[in-house]
Structure formats: C-alpha cells, structure tokens
Amino acid sequence: MVGIFKNLLVHFRTWIKFLIILAIGLGIIFFIVFSVYKPMYAVTVEGKFIGYTADKSEMQKKISEYMKSGEKTSNIAFVDIEVLPEYSFCLLKKDYKSDDEEIFNKIIDKGVTYYKYYAILVNSEEKCYVSTYQECESIIQGLKDKDSQNKDQVGYVVKYETDLKEFTNTETAISNLYVEKPKPVVVPKKSSTSGGKLATSAKVNYSAVSLGISLINPVQGRLTSRFGERSNIRSSVHTGLDIATSVGTPIRAAASGTVVFSGWKGAYGQMIAIDHGNGVQTYYCHCSALYKSVGQYVNQGEIISAVGRTGNVTGPHLHLEVRVNGVAYNPDYYVY
Ligand SMILES: [Zn+2]
Fold first, then answer.
1. CA 242 – ligand 1 centroid, Å
2. Mean pLDDT in residue range 7-22
3. What distance in angstroms lies between residue 332's CA and the mean position of ligand 1's atoms?
C-alpha cells in the first residue's frame, strides 16, 4: 500500500518537473518569437490583399466615421462603401512598417460619395441648387417680397446625389426666378372719343386699321353672320361678327384690358365691353351670364361671360364687335 503511494509521489514529482521545464521552454519560445515578430492584421477587400495594420479597431472606427460624413467637407452627406474590408490575424517581423493611411485610402477609393443639396422648384421643376435650408427660405421669401407672379409655385426639395450641382447664390436665384406681374392697362380718360365709356353709335368702317394689339378668338363656333351684312331682324348694317355655339359656352377676352360696360344694353342683350387702350374696344353681346364688372382688369384669354340668346336674337351666339374710337371695324381682319 505504502509502496504504491510512494510510487505515485515519484511519478507526481516527475510530472511537476516536466511541466515546469515545459513552461520555461514555452516562455523562452514566446520571448524569442515576440522579440522578432509582432501581431498584425492582414486587410483584404473582396479577397484581395491590400496591406497590414497593427490597429484593427482604429481602422474600423475611421472607416465608419468616413461613411457617415465623408471628410467633413461641406455638402458630403455620406459615403457608401459596398464591401467592407476583412481582417485576419498574423505575425510579422518587428521592423515591418505598416501604412494605415495607404490602406484607408485604398478602402475609401471604393466608396461612392453622396452630396446633400437643395433644389429650388418652380411648379415642381428644378430651377437651381443651393447648399443650405436657409438659402431656400431666403429665395422663397425674396420672391414673396418682390411679389413675383410665381411666388406661390416656388418650393424646394432635399436631394442626395452622387454628382454635386453648381450652386446659385440667393440674389442671383431671386432675380432669375422673378416673374413680373402684368401691369394693368391705363385707360386714357380723354385721349379718345370712347374715353373708357361704351360707344353706341352704329358707325362702321369697312377698311382695316392697325389695332396695335393682337386679338384671340373669344369662342369656337360657326360663323353665321358677317360684318356689314343686312338682314330682316335689324334695321342697320351688321356691326360685328356672329359666332353660333351653345348657351353657356365660356367667352374669353380677345385681349387684355379694362371692363367698361357689363350689363343689359337694348338689342345687344347682356353684354360686356373691354377697353384695350388707345381707343380700341371689343364687345361681347347676347350673353347668358356676365362674370366681370365695370373697372375690372382682365387678361387676354380670361373667361368674362357665357354665350347666350339675350336681346335681339334668333338663336344662341356671340355677337363680337371691334371698335376703334367708337367706329365698328370688321372683326374678320383680327380674328377667326
Ligand atoms: Zn350680330
């Protein structure tokens, strides 16, 4: 019994000795290895080796910061690096010089930079680009202050794109986007015989005269009676042009001007007269509805009334007259 125990003790001592020698041996080996080598990480991107770095976590931190904000250059929103590098542990000789900057540059070379900017929109169309929200506000406010005609159609949108647009400064953007409102025509009070009032004489002139403005067709329809014609429903010559179409069809101003008559006028029924300045007026007669009143400024093409059959008529139509200083001219020279 004692013999077995003694025997075990001897074996135990032998084992302890062996382990001590082994530990010292390993220690010497490690000492030799680490006095010659140092731990490093081999960096690969898509399996392609790009270099060694000693500080893996510092490299990862640098890359993630770069992806968030680029190099802090203005308007870089973020950088998209599709494939991130992989790191594998290795030992390299102590005198090996690693170049983290070079590795970093190789990684970010594969990145796509996205820029953030603001597009100024007019009617949803991109007109120019600025770099800050404040500039957007200044441009929109600037157009409001100048009472630009398009002030209610101006907006902006934030964009992230890979190409950086050329920026426009606030002042230039405002002056480029500004649209002047049409100025009301000033009707000369006593410069013409019509003088802003309705001329009611049936005087006609068969020759053409320059109006100094161009007219558009107030309605589409069938021409049923020409200027100068005589008929049994009226006592004098026809002072206008008749365009037949259905009741309620919108009638548009042939040119911009100021309404000088809007109401009932004998055989003309419900009519509107527009003064275009310089003695030029247009009449729209037999209307079923009048949408404008005396003194209102109307733009060319604006709806002013509706076709009807009021006054001396046999069917619904627009009776259109062109008057210059009270004299009726043939509308055929200017419209249809
Ligand atoms: Zn007529």
1. 5
2. 87
3. 13
Please give the DSSP secondary-structure letter assigned to residue 12. Answer: H
Ligand 1 centre distance from Cα of residue 278 (Å): 24
Helix/strand/coil for 284: strand
The CATH superfamily label for domain 204-333 reads Glucose Permease (Domain IIA) (2.70.70.10)
Both tokens of residue 193?
Answer: 């015989």
Sketch the domain layout of the chain as residue ranges: 32-110, 114-177, 204-333
Distance 321 CA to ligand 1 centre (A): 8
What torsion do the CA atoms of 291, 297, 302, 308 make, to the nearest 10 degrees?
30
Q: Is 33 helix (H, G, I), strand (E, B) or coil?
A: helix
pLDDT in tens, 188-203: 333 333 334 676 667 8
Q: In this structure, what token pair is assigned to residue 108?
A: 């970010």
Mean of pLDDT values over 288-317: 94
State in Å: Cα 258 to ligand 1 middle: 22
319 alpha carbon – ligand 1 mean position (Å): 4
What is the percentage of the chain residues whose pLDDT exceeds 90? 50
Whether the predicted pLDDT of 49 surpasses 70: yes
Cα 226 to middle of ligand 1, angstroms: 8
Looking at residue 333, what is its pLDDT? 87
Cα 35 to ligand 1 centroid, rounded to whole Å = 113
